[in-house]
Amino acid sequence: MTPPQRRRRQPPPPPPPPSPAVPKSAPSPAEGQNGGEGEGKNPERLYIITGADGERAPVDLVTLIVTRAEAPSSATPEQTAVLRMCAAPLSVAEISAYLRLPFSVVTVLLTEMLAAELVQARAPIVRQQLPDRSLLEAVMHGLQRL
Amino acid sequence: MDFNGSDTIPGPRAEDHLPHTTTAAAKIVIVGGFGVGKTTMVGSVSEIRPLTTEETMTQAGIGVDDDYGSETKTATTVAMDFGRIRITEQVVLYLFGTPGQERFWFLWNGLFEGALGAVVLVDTRRIEVSFEVMGRLEEGGVPFVVAVNTFPDGPRYPVEDLRAALDLPPEIPIVECDVRRRASSRDVLMTLMRFLHSLALSRSLT
Ligand SMILES: Nc1nc2c(ncn2[C@@H]2O[C@H](COP(=O)(O)OP(=O)(O)OP(=O)(O)O)[C@@H](O)[C@H]2O)c(=O)[nH]1
Ligand SMILES: [Mg+2]
After folding, report:
1. Name one GO molecular function term (chain B) (predicted).
2. Is the overall model pTM greater than 0.90, yes or no?
3. A29-126 CATH choice from 3.30.70, 3.90.1570, 1.10.10, 1.10.260
4. CA gyration radius, chain A
5. In this complex, is the C-beta atom of A74 within 8 Å of any C-beta atom belonging to chain B?
6. Which of A101, B23, B52, B123 could form a disulfide with A105 if both were Cys (CB 3.0 to 4.6 A apart)?
7. pLDDT, tens digit, 9 for 90 and up, residues B151-205
8. Which has the closest alpha carbon to B96: B177, B187, B26, B179?
9. Of all protein residues, whose CA lies closest to atom 24 belonging to ligand 1?
10. How many domains does chain B have?
11. Complex ipTM, two decimals?
């Protein structure tokens, strides 16, 4: 018995031209990438629901957020909760999970809090052309202890 | 006294707090078609109870007009589970189990772009459900290993038959696993890290 055979797709299409509606350089987390996904297969248009429009801080799912100030008296319940849970570093994904708010909404919330210097962001380790060997070795050691 | 209601929002348990020395997080993604065991794998290796991050969107039907002439819209929530492993006092690793439907992945900005690498789970009863994602990873330049989640009633194929069927070059590891077992899932992650390490070595020589 032989397993079904995968057929590679045709050589990847050239990068799609920037969509006229959304400049390619837009830092917004999701809308700008819609066009590139599953070309031709997804007739529906997808929109992310967010609380507000505008600039978003470039936070990743695993950007670590740390509290740096007391909650101001004007703080919303969500802001107060973020300031409490980020007393120790916490990823944006975890904040989204505990607040039960969509990632994009949390991004908006954190954009405001970063601008107000209520919290600090620690940038994630991202994949590089030449992977960082000492990091990979540390991860292997960490996994061995698991 | 807290009148603003934030006390009702739970945070991490005290024992789940990361040390203040934690400077950065890395992520890897666990992918594969519907029901191949992604959620199970995240849960079996995570040091915290697996969590879920959601994204909500509206889906506007094309050419479907309601009585008022506006497009019909339905809100869809897509959930992604994730877990976490502390690596050192400075570094923490997150594992994301993607939702089964690939077309939703764009919802999480940078999910694939920044990931160190990916584990593609394959169920030998339905190998083809994981084909699509492999193409996506290849196109995105995300290094991956293949883990064959061995369900008891699934056919067993020699690894080289699987490699031929998946049309993968010899250097990409293909390993068997039982994602319900922590040690087995951990070994898959080790395989990914060793593979990434070998890529780093070969690239540093060129
Ligand atoms: N026998 C056996 N069952 C497994 C194994 N891995 C997962 N399962 C079961 O298979 C089912 C699907 O596993 P999930 O981990 O939910 O799969 P998933 O990939 O997250 O599924 P979706 O998120 O729906 O795409 C669950 O009922 C698991 O308990 C395995 O290694 N052996
Ligand atoms: Mg799942």
Report:
1. GTP binding
2. no
3. 1.10.10
4. 20
5. no
6. A101
7. 889 999 999 999 999 999 999 999 999 999 999 999 999 999 999 999 988 888 7
8. B26
9. B35
10. 1
11. 0.88
